[in-house]
Amino acid sequence: MAIILTLYIILSLAALFFACKTKNIGIICGYIMCLYGTVSSFYNSNLNPFGVIISVGLLIISYSHYKSISEYKRLSFYDNLTGLYNYRYFADEVSRLQSSRKPVTVLVADVDDLKEVNDNCGHQRGDELIESVGRVFSSCTRESDIAARIGGDEFGIILPGAKRETAEVIADRIRRKCKEKGIDISIGIAVRRSCSNMERAVDKADRRMYENKREGRC
């Protein structure tokens, strides 16, 4: 009997853990009441073994619910094509880092001639090119960096605490690896000093990227 109770408690606590992760108050209260009733029945020598089966069912339901919510959150923050963060997450991080007193360097990049690739080779080839650039960004950034696809052919990187020299090294690495794949990319860099505006830094990096593109400095 004690083994059944122990198993029931373990399964119920596991189900309760995933229910708490989903922040579903109704499910959480139901689990607590169910667990309390089972423990009480044990001390009254009236434990029902079918409670274990019920616990397994509740665990499956709560875990499935938890996985669904986790997948929804993942899809809401990541770009499906590249696997990088999307514009929404990038913008949220720009707002969050506004209060940071540390310097933040921003890098904005744009794939050159993507429209011509789409027009001449088809959108599938254009998507393959974007995917390839996404892999380059993933391989060239640090774990602490926030690399995102912020537009159709536009990418951004937030480098918290990084100096301009660090961003230039990363930018050179990205340009070189893209060039090896036959892709030209224009990049602009701006540094947000402590207490200055993050959005202005992003705009400045964007302007510098377009200046480099017009002047042919990829």
What does this structure look like?
This protein has 218 residues and is an alpha+beta fold. It folds into two domains: 2-77; 87-214, Reverse transcriptase/Diguanylate cyclase domain (Alpha-Beta Plaits, 2-Layer Sandwich). The protein is 63% helix and 12% strand. The chain has eight helices and four strands. The protein has helices at residues 2-22, 25-43, 50-77, 87-96, 114-121, 123-140, 164-180, 198-214, and strands spanning 104-111, 146-149, 154-160, 185-192. It has a four-stranded antiparallel beta sheet, sandwiched between helices. A hairpin with a 4-residue loop joins strand 2 and strand 3 (154-160). Helix 1 (2-22) packs parallel to helix 3, helix 5 packs antiparallel against helix 6 and helix 6 packs across helix 7. The longest helix is centred in the first third of the chain and has 28 residues, at 50-77. It is globular and about 75 Å long.
Quickly describe the structure.
The protein is of the alpha+beta class and 218 residues long.
Structure annotation, total helices = 8
Q: Fraction of residues in helices?
A: 55-70%
User: Mean pLDDT, as a whole number?
Assistant: 79
User: What is the terminal-to-terminal distance?
Assistant: 73 Å
Radius of gyration over C-alpha positions, nearest whole angstrom: 26 Å
